[in-house]
Amino acid sequence: MLDEFALIEQFFARATASGEDIQLGIGDDAALVTVPATQQLAVCTDTLVSGRHFPLATTAADIGWKALAVNVSDLAAMGAEPRWFTLALTLPAADADWLRGFSCGLAAMAAVNRLSLIGGDTTRGPLSITVTAGGWVAPGASLTRRGAQPGDVVCVTGTLGDAALALRRLNVVDADHARDAWLRDRLNRPTPRVAAGRALAGLAHAGIDISDGLLADLGHLLAGAGGDSATDSGGDTPAGAVIDVRRLPRSAAFSARAAANVAVDLQLAGGDDYELCVCLAPQNVPEATQRLAALGVPLTRIGKIIAEPGLWIEDEGGQRACSLGGARGFNHFSERGEGL
Ligand code: ADP
Ligand code: MG
To answer: Above pLDDT 70, what percent of the chain?
Structure first.
């Protein structure tokens, strides 16, 4: 059985890289980091709890990837450049095979986005992983939840509903392994939209990453509407939105696999997409589309911001009101937030 220090040394200590901005990583009482003179520090934390944020059967490597990816996605949604992270790991046992897989998945996500692991904490208990991530963004250039304006076009990156469909089909075995494997990757190995977030910062009025489902996260943008995107002020003129469900972008695997009666619900409320939802002035949509196309990221218009508060869903049947808040999307403390 590994002790705590051997475990850190074997699986995590080598992940500390350095740059001019990271002076001291793992091994001391705290890490030392310098924020570049022209930048602000963007910092976020997210916890993954076994059985709640990932199915119990998820591989250690996928858990490692996802624990970091969900945090990188939050930095992406701020338009920040991810730089470092800390890892608070609670483990039932020091299982070397599990740790090897976990640290590989974590390191792979860190390498893709050039992040350094600079510290953490290791304790025994029910499996839970907390990552705190930091990155740089120029003052005034961040992409915040505040600032959506009536008349703005609502756009999303990538495709929606893949992860929710994968979760639903977890125990379904049939002939189409390739499509199901692709969908499962969307659930277990999300790709945070870092470059897209940075390209949209300064151009979009507001933005958020879609982790709890489009409707729930769009609700946050509506609550912050009318505010000043670069400061913490405002959000005092709540707006509404109309979303045309026929425009919600679908992957080929989703189209082939999602049953018609649940497809739209999965796209609106499923969660775990880790795509970006942004509000853009109509004249900026072509520029945004072009910038993201250059990065290989599709951007799709799905609706618009309106002055009248509320969320409206448009489909073949016309337009209907949709409630905001706990009734849609994943809310851990709502009556319907039952977990996996
Ligand atoms: P302390 O008792 O001072 O909190 P620890 O013994 O918890 O120190 O940690 C020793 C060093 O190892 C610290 O630099 C800490 O940041 C790092 N560390 C501990 N656990 C982890 C982990 N899971 N991942 C990365 N670094 C870790
Ligand atoms: Mg400690």
So the answer is: 89
Q: Which ligand sits nearest to residue 89's alpha carbon?
A: 1
Ligand 1 residue neighbourhood (C-beta within 6 Å): 8, 12, 26-29, 87, 89, 117, 119-122
Question: In degrees rounded to 5, what are phi and psi of residue 218?
Answer: -60, -35
**Which residue is it, tokens 């002020």?**
233
Which pLDDT belongs to residue 67? 97
Compute the distance between CA of residue 243 and CA of residue 168 in angstroms, rounded to an integer. Answer: 24
Name the least confident of 9-18, 104-113, 277-286, 331-340.
331-340
| DSSP codes of every residue in 162-192 | HHHHHHHTTT---S-HHHHHHHHHHHHS---
Say how many C-beta atoms besides its own lie within 10 A of residue 233's C-beta: 10
pLDDT value of position 1:
61
pLDDT in tens, 19-54: 788 999 998 999 999 999 999 999 999 999 988 888
Tokens of 244: 């045309």
Terminal Cα-to-Cα distance of the chain (whole angstroms):
31
The pocket of ion ligand 2, defined by CB under 5 A, consists of: 121
What pTM was estimated for this model as a whole? 0.91
pLDDT at residue 326 greater than cutoff 50: no
Residue 273 pLDDT class (50, 70, 90 cuts)? very high
For residue 135, the CA-to-ligand 2 centroid distance in Å is 23
- Give the number of whichever ligand sits closest to the CA of residue 30: 1
Q: Is 68 in contact with 103 (CB distance < 8 Å)?
A: no
Residue 166 per-residue DSSP state: H
With CA atoms as reference, report the closest residue to 256 among 167, 313, 182.
182
Q: Whose CA is nearest to atom 21 of ligand 1?
A: 120
In sequence order, the 6+-apart residues with CB closer than 8 A to the CB of 115 are 68, 72, 82, 83, 84, 85, 109, 133
For residue 95, the one-letter residue type is D
For residues 104-129, average pLDDT: 95
The whole-angstrom separation of Cα 163 and Cα 74 is 17
